[in-house]
Amino acid sequence: MGLEQCADKKRGNWHLRGISGGEKKRLSISLEIPSQPQIMLLDEPTTGLDSASAFL
């Protein structure tokens, strides 16, 4: 999911930028996949992603 470059980044706060919105979206989806849920409900899963990432 292209998350290697953000592996060492902090989450961020008002003072520190941290990971981008698209990285947060990909990370949250990536964290759910290993648990192999029977159903995954995604609300606007491509919001904040570039076209190449959304195509994955």
UniProtKB/TrEMBL annotation:
Q: Name one Pfam family in it.
A: ABC_tran
Q: Does the keyword Transport apply?
A: yes
Segments crossing the lipid bilayer: none
Provide the ABC transporter domain boundaries: 5-47
* Keywords associated with the record: Transport
Q: Which GO terms describe its molecular function?
A: ATP binding; ATP hydrolysis activity
Return the similarity comment: Belongs to the ABC transporter superfamily. ABCG family. Eye pigment precursor importer (TC 3.A.1.204) subfamily.
Q: Which PANTHER family match?
A: ABC TRANSPORTER G FAMILY MEMBER 11, ABC-2 TYPE TRANSPORTER TRANSMEMBRANE DOMAIN-CONTAINING PROTEIN
Return the protein name. ABC transporter domain-containing protein
Q: Organism, per UniProt?
A: Ficus carica
Q: Lineage in the entry?
A: Eukaryota, Viridiplantae, Streptophyta, Embryophyta, Tracheophyta
